[in-house]
Design brief:
- This protein is mainly α and 117 residues long.
- It has a domain at 57-113.
- Helix content is 44%, strand content 0%.
- It is built from five helices and no strands.
């Protein structure tokens, strides 16, 4: 018994080659050469706003202590809210708090002023 092929692995008879038959195959006449048209244009690159409708992506490399604090903060938020909280939600909330609240912003700036631990 032959193994059934997945749809992505199946080939059409034209791709696989038609099996040999006892009757001669008719050969179609070649199509007349078409005049070349204008060259195809490459699609225009979308504008910056269209490329990332969800926003801009940043990458942060965190040391072990900062990673632990971030993970703990995320777990506490999940426990208190009783639902799954994505890390990006926590990051977004922290950034908006620092931007809106002058005391949080001042604490953040003061933290940046002191040398890293």
């Amino acid at each position: 018994m032959t193994e059934r092929k997945r749809p992505s692995r199946r080939r059409t008879m034209a791709e696989a080659g038609a099996p040999a038959t006892s009757t001669p195959a008719t050969v179609a006449a070649p199509a007349p050469a078409a005049r070349p048209g204008p060259p195809a244009r490459a699609p225009r690159a979308p504008e910056k706003a269209e490329q990332r409708p969800g926003g801009v992506k940043y990458t942060a490399v965190l040391d072990d202590d900062t990673t632990d604090a971030f993970e703990t903060l995320t777990r506490v938020a999940r426990r208190r809210l009783g639902r799954h909280v994505d890390k990006i939600e926590v990051m977004r909330a922290l950034l908006l708090l620092a931007a809106d609240d002058t005391s949080v912003r001042d604490q953040m700036i003061e933290n940046l002023r002191t040398p890293a631990r």
